[in-house]
Amino acid sequence: MNLETDLNRFMQICQARAEAALDLRLPAADRMPERLHQAMRYSVLGGGKRLRPLLTYAAGQAVGVPWECLDGPACAVEFIHVYSLIHDDLPAMDNDDLRRGKPTCHIAFDEATAILAGDALQALAFHVLAHDSSIAVPASSRLAMVETLAKASGSLGMVGGQAIDLESVGKTLDLPSLENMHIRKTGALIRASVNLATLAHPSLDSSIADKLDHYAKCIGLAFQIQDDVLDEESDTQTLGKTQGKDRDNNKPNYPALLGLAGAKQKARELHEEAVDTLSGLGAEADILRALSRFIIERRA
Amino acid sequence: MNLETDLNRFMQICQARAEAALDLRLPAADRMPERLHQAMRYSVLGGGKRLRPLLTYAAGQAVGVPWECLDGPACAVEFIHVYSLIHDDLPAMDNDDLRRGKPTCHIAFDEATAILAGDALQALAFHVLAHDSSIAVPASSRLAMVETLAKASGSLGMVGGQAIDLESVGKTLDLPSLENMHIRKTGALIRASVNLATLAHPSLDSSIADKLDHYAKCIGLAFQIQDDVLDEESDTQTLGKTQGKDRDNNKPNYPALLGLAGAKQKARELHEEAVDTLSGLGAEADILRALSRFIIERRA
């Protein structure tokens, strides 16, 4: 058994577990208002790499949190992620018709329903953190989870990153500005995915929590660089979304600033930094190490 | 001094207090991303009846919670309310150009910024509840606040009501269906405004909390009926938003179902039920009584 095989197995188990956990926490499709609930379920279920839940489960495993305690946090970050995709795809934003190989929410339903489905998923994320009985930690830790996710999602985190992204269309960003945008746009939620897992272990040594946070910061940026690389290199079918979109939209990206080889090199360096950060941890962190490699080697 | 004078004074004090508290909790306009933060501040500050913060402060006063402990909850419900207005006004939703007498967020800025400003305000609401140091209650009570607000805001509350509202354009709703829509669309957040105040008093007798909850349920519906009445009766200038919009959009409303006189009568009955519910409370609940009357007598 090698790390790659272990990661594949771990990913399959986690993806199935996350799918079931998400399904369980979403309102039923026949519950009123049906169309809204159908749109929420359509966008959340049946696809996606589930990178954020994977990170929550993998970080939890690295610090010894039982899987049962991680379902709620994993779902909460995924609900935030999916709501951001729904809103990002809207005509007034990126105007994308295709996501994960199927029509985007506003195409499959309509724009108003897509806006509301996103809004409701954000509320659901916080409801899960506050309410979910599977999260067996003291109220103060739960509250820290709410705070972490709210900060990562808001105007100084993910939404702020999207706003900077929109403002920068057609502009030339330098490397620090591009990095700053991505640290918010995708990095903040990826860090939250890991940090919710360490918060699920209230007595965890804070230096270990800090290490995992730094790991998450590195792989969050590496993930975005690889996204940019794939946007340059892949075809639409492999990607499950429209290829070359960033370049066509004249959006700043890493290959444009560093060249394709330079971007790949930077992703590799971030992967190495992420793995180095975990040097004090044992085999229980192997999945995190393998996930970091997976992020820079993935093709979709 | 009579109740009306007291209410006027209370409203002025609360509106000024809420304005300052909201200002303090919003990111500065020159903080990056500037345009997003400007849009958030533009939509939140400088207007509105602040009915929800008023209710939080008034309910807090009725049960003896210090004002300082109510600023956070009052801001959280108002952030949710304003985000819902921003999204509601979007072209894909109600397509309104005017709100509180000034251009709506997507007109003053742009659609993408309006979507993101709403999203960020929702996250900010939960961040305030989880983080705000002014909320001096145990973590378990704060967590109950998060849960209450998340439930009131989501697909079974406010957003669900908006979805039902959208689906019912051009349809004939019967009275129970119309009521069900409004109980979610505006009623859920109005109840949350009151319930966050009682949660700020962790040792409060639950029967009193229940009474205030029922009061809030009554006035929430009365508020919506009066909104429908005003939509029929007022002119655009007094209303600060486009008059006759519901009728023009062929939206179901109370005057259409009950007649104008019948709608007014129903609002009066709900006001009386709200006041009756408070019969066990003394003068400390007078503002709540006066607010209930104000809601059915307001002209804008």
TrEMBL record, chains A, B:
Give the InterPro entries listed for this entry. Isoprenoid_synthase_dom_sf, Polyprenyl_synt, Polyprenyl_synt_CS, Prenyl_diphosphate_synthase
Q: Does the keyword Transferase apply?
A: yes
Region spans: Disordered: 234-254
Short name of one Pfam family: polyprenyl_synt
EC number annotated for this UniProt entry: 2.5.1.1, 2.5.1.10
Q: Which UniProt keywords apply?
A: Isoprene biosynthesis, Magnesium, Metal-binding, Transferase
Q: Which domain of life is it from?
A: Bacteria
Alphabetized GO MF terms: (2E,6E)-farnesyl diphosphate synthase activity; dimethylallyltranstransferase activity
Which cofactors does this protein require? Mg(2+)
Which PROSITE patterns would you find in this protein's record? POLYPRENYL_SYNTHASE_1 (PS00723), POLYPRENYL_SYNTHASE_2 (PS00444)
Write out the similarity annotation: Belongs to the FPP/GGPP synthase family.
Question: Under which name does UniProt file this protein?
Answer: Geranyl diphosphate/farnesyl diphosphate synthase
